[in-house]
Amino acid sequence: MRLVFMGTPDFAVPTLQALVAHGHEVVGVFTQPDRPSGRGKALKPSPVKVAAQELGLTVYQPQKVKNRESIQCLQELAPEAIIVVAYGQILSKEILELPPSGCINVHASLLPDWRGAAPIHWAILAGDHQTGVTTMQMDVGLDTGDMLLKVESPIGEDTTTGELHDDLAHKGAGLLITTLEQLQKGELKGIPQSGPTRYASLLTREHEKIDWTRSAQEIHNQIRGLHPWPGAYTTFREETVKVRTAKKSSEESVKESFVKTPKPGEVVNYRQEGLLVQTGEGLILVTEVQPAGKKTMPARDFFLGRHAHVGEGFGEGWINHE
């Protein structure tokens, strides 16, 4: 098919590569403008732009795809369909109606569940055991268009957002190829969305802060749901620290503790694997942390390197010993 592709982050790259590999004619790739990045604030191209240039495709980077110049460009490209994967801009009704086969979106959830900008993060934050990818015929609503095809993906007890992202990116690429094949054969008809939905809002700094009064399971979900980006954080001796990895710990572990009545956030023991920390319900083993401006390190090394003691704690309200 003659296609225009719209996408920006890493998640979209496998789909673009699959379209070219399966012989589709990608006549243009729309992606977000280069953004300042790093300490030097040098302009950095999006992953989709890099991939498109490697494939020898023409790249367009409008500040606003809804402007008249962009719409005229799309009209001249005359695609049969527009493929949209995490583009980052809202398409106008005029663009949605431009291609004969419409605009087809690859969304990283089993719609209608987890509409919105961060469905992969939220599936893990919520403790879901399953998610997937949906191809959808786009309409003017936010992820509300008719569903075309779905593929499911399990979420393991320790699965991180980074791992799930890569899995769904590749499954989504394959699902789109199948979607286009069936559309071309006239074998596919959209199904209206119905049933309960949850909204995957953009993540804020407040979502990243660990509340140690929550349960060990909830904190474990938060840490892996925000790994590798943006990361769950806490404080220790007023120093901001990201908790990179952790494991749930058996309640029996508290019997080994040197602290009889631990409070949420309190380090009750340490081992080679990490720090055993009390939560509002149960214990969690913090295995890796990242102090501000430094590299990720074993949590035990962080703790002992500060000459810390069992009974000190993470979070606010602690009088810890320097």
Automatic annotation (TrEMBL):
Gene3D superfamilies: Formyl transferase, C-terminal domain, Formyl transferase, N-terminal domain. The keyword Protein biosynthesis applies. Its EC number is 2.1.2.9. Pfam families: Formyl_trans_C, Formyl_trans_N. InterPro entries: Fmt, Formyl_trans_C, Formyl_trans_C_sf, Formyl_transf_N, Formyl_transf_N_sf, Formyl_transferase-like_C_sf, GART_AS, Met-tRNA-FMT_C. It is an enzyme of class 2 (transferase). GO terms for molecular function: methionyl-tRNA formyltransferase activity. Keywords: Protein biosynthesis, Transferase. Residues 1-179 form the Formyl transferase N-terminal domain. It catalyses: L-methionyl-tRNA(fMet) + (6R)-10-formyltetrahydrofolate = N-formyl-L-methionyl-tRNA(fMet) + (6S)-5,6,7,8-tetrahydrofolate + H(+). Residues 203-306 form the Formyl transferase C-terminal domain. GO terms for cellular component: cytosol. (6S)-5,6,7,8-tetrahydrofolate binds at residues 109-112. Transmembrane segments: none annotated. The keyword Protein biosynthesis applies. SUPFAM superfamilies: FMT C-terminal domain-like, Formyltransferase. Belongs to the Fmt family. Attaches a formyl group to the free amino group of methionyl-tRNA(fMet). The formyl group appears to play a dual role in the initiator identity of N-formylmethionyl-tRNA by promoting its recognition by IF2 and preventing the misappropriation of this tRNA by the elongation apparatus. This is Methionyl-tRNA formyltransferase. The gene is fmt.
